[in-house]
Amino acid sequence: MKYCPHCGNSVREKANFCPSCGNALVETSHAQSVSDSNNQFKEIYNNATAKLNHYTGEEGAVKVNIVALFSEVFKHHTKDEANSIFIAGTKTTTPALSDVSDEWAKPWLFSRILLGFLLAFVVLLYMVDGFSNSNAIPGLILVGAFAVPFSGLVFFFESNAFKDISLFEVVKVFFIGGIFSMVVTLFLYQFVTFSSTSQIFGVLTLKDSLSIGIVEELGKVLIISYFISQLDVHHVLDGILIGAAVGSGFAAFETAGYIYRANAQLVAVAILRGWSAIGGHLVWAAITGGAIMIVKRDHPFKFSQLLDTRFLVFFVLAVLMHAAWDWNITILGSNYLKLILLIGLAWIVVFVLMNAGLKEISHLKQQSHS
Question: Is 260 exposed, middle or buried (CB count within 10 Å of its CB: 0-12, 13-18, 19+)?
Answer without folding.
Answer: middle
